[in-house]
Every structure is written in structure tokens, then in C-alpha cells.
Amino acid sequence: MKKNQNKWVCAAIPALLLHCSIGTVYCWSIFSQEIAEHIGFSKSATEWAFSFAIFFLGMSAAFLGNVVEKDIHKSSLIATICFALGMAGTGFFIWFGGNQFAANGKGSVLALIGIYVCYGFIMGIGLGTGYLSPVKTLMLWFQDRKGLATGLAVAGFGAAKAIASPIMQALLDNLGDGGIYKMFWILAVVYFVMMFVGHLLLKKPADWHEPQTKEKGQGILSTIKTRPIANYIGIWVMFYINITCGLALISQEKMIVKCIGLAGAVGIISTISAIFNAGGRLGFSAWADTMKDRNTIYKLIFVLSIVFTGVVLLTNGIKNGEGNILLTILVLALIFIVNAGYGGGFSNVPTLLSDHYGMASISALHGITLSAWAFAGLTGNQMASWIVGHVGTPDAATNPIGYQTVLYVTGALYIVALLISIFMVRPVKEKKEA
Questions:
Q1: pLDDT tens digits, 50-97
Q2: 3-state SS class at 407
Q3: Entry pTM
Q4: What number of CA atoms fall less than 13 Å from residue 98's CA on the CB side?
Q5: Residue-range domains of the chain with CATH
């Protein structure tokens, strides 16, 4: 009974406090143009800060997974300090860069590098450790509904954009001159408080016995080898493909919406897509709890993505969507389905891994698997940008042929992911608990 009474305070609430804070990394598009203009650099130059943040999120999760495994209080404190410090430091270098640009008429390379380090590297460490810290704890408290529990937290990561975007926009509109760096300083304090409260509340069940090293085996590799090695490779690759395809489409979402004649509704559609992202994280993971083989949910995600991508390609929906209600609905449906599948792919990874490899080393194993997110963060957006910049009419205001070409690539990748899910990730006869 004590376990049931405390699981919300010890796991669910702190997980939401942590994930709703770090998930604001996806608000980058709200202020990236303002940063570029304030410090005197092109938007493409500042965009690397976001790519670095996602890269170091995945890599810090991979390399610090063992720290999370041993001590969630240490890892959640590292996350709190690094995320808040990274935000405050980003604000400082925006302020510094703005002063240099105003004085000299050209951007300061030091300011740009400082933003890369603070938003990309320091915040990235906070993102990786903060993302991992509550996941195992949630699965321990909600052992009968592990997917629902992890989906709830990861949904917080996805919903953070929808919640924080209007707040950030309001701050930018009302803080006056220098609002961009003032916003970072204010949010650094707000998110530090939220994450620190989450850090204080986060606690594993009192009756959970953490296996000692000798109980776990010789290390993470020995855990992976308890199943055919192709099984883990399959999980990693299909996770990587799902993120790459999601980022490729999401990064072009705004321009695709303009192509189909809905430029005035970009903000509303962006919010709806963020809700689908969060809903997919919660819905797909909760649904997977009812399935004998959790991998079935990935097959469903990939089939839905392939079908809607194929329909938009066959109808030339992006090119012909303006003024055609049916094609407009199909394109929007594709955007929402990909967002939901992108989110669902994240929330089901830890539970899929626990089904295959047990709970003993799940934080470390989940961390290594998140390296797929790191590499997808460097390839997804850039792949789509390269295609749009080289196919169709790159110099035009919109490039429907370029966006359609992105869909040809993502559609092919989704097919590869489906084949991997079917033939490489084999079902487990009995789900492992430890």
C-alpha cells in the first residue's frame, strides 16, 4: 500500500518536473532567429547549437548511464546544475555577442563558440542525465504498467514545447531590448527550481534491491549478449531510423505547411503536432502494455508512417495541396502521424529493452541506446536541409519538389526499419524482470 501511495510523489511528479524542463530544448526554433540577429551571425551558423545539444544528449546518456544506474540522486543533481548553468551561460554569451556586434559591426566568434559550448555541450549533459534519471525509477514503481509510466514522463518531454513556446514568445515580446538573453536568465532560474524539486523528490522503491556488479555479470556487453547480438543492433538501428525520419520531416514542417496554403496557421499546427508528439509518447507506450510483444508497436508505427508517406507521395500532396481540402488533410495527417510515431518510438525504447534484457542494467543499456538519438540529431535535420537545398527550386520561397523528395528518402528508411523490426528484433518468450 505504501508503494501505491508514494509512487506519484517519488516517481511520476519528479519525472514530469525533470522532463518538462529539459524538453524545452525543442523550443529552439522559437528564438534561433533572434539569437542570430542579436549576435550578428547567420541562422545556419547558430543552428549548430541545437544539433550539438541533441548530440551531447545522446552521448552523455551513453557515457553516464552507469552513473544513473548507481545513484539517481547524483545524476538528477548533475542534470539540474548542467541544464540551468547551460541556459544561463547561453544568455551570457548572447549578451556578450550582442555588445560586440553593436560595437564592432561584426559577430564575435568567441560568443558563437560560447553558445555552442553552453547550449550544446553543458546543456547537452543536463539533457542526457535528466532524460535517463527518472526512467528506471518509474518502471520500478509502476511494474504492471511500465509503458504507461515511462510514456507519462517522456510525454512531458514532448509536451514541453507546446507549454513553453507561448511563454517564451511572450517573454521575447515583453522584455524589451535584450529580451533574448534576459529570457534565458529568467528561465535558467525557473528550470533550476523545477528540476531541483524533482531531484529532491525522486526516489526508488524501498523494497528494490539494486543488484551488485557480480549479480549483473561482467558488464553491459554481457547483458546484450544474453540475446543474439543482431537483436540489440536491430533495436538500435530501428530507433535511429525513426528519429532520423522524424527530425527530417519535423525540421521542414513549417515550410510544408506554407506549401499547402496554411501559412497563417503555422503556429497552431505546430502546437497540434507537439500535442501529437506528446500523445504518441503516452498513447503508444500505454497501448504496448497490452501486447505480448512490445515490438508490435514499432511495426504499427512504421506501417502507419509508410502508408501516409506513400499516399502523400502518390498524390503529390505537398505540391498540389493548396486549395485541395482532401490533399491538405492528408499532408496534415502525415505530419501528425510522424510526430506521434516519433514520440512513441522514444517512450517504448526503455520498456522494450527491459522486456529483452531485464531491469538490472536498464539505465546503462538505455543510455547506450540513446546514442542513436545523438547521431540522428546530426543527420536528420541536415539530410532534409541538404535535399531541399539541392533538389527542386532551392532559391524559391517554398520548394515542394524538395520536400516531396525528402519523403521518398524517409519512406524508404521506414520500410528498412519495418523489415528490421520484423526479422531482426525477435520476440521474447518470457519478459525479464531482473
A1: 989 999 999 999 898 888 888 899 999 999 999 999 999 999 999 999
A2: helix
A3: 0.85
A4: 17
A5: 1-204 (1.20.1250.20), 213-427 (1.20.1250.20)
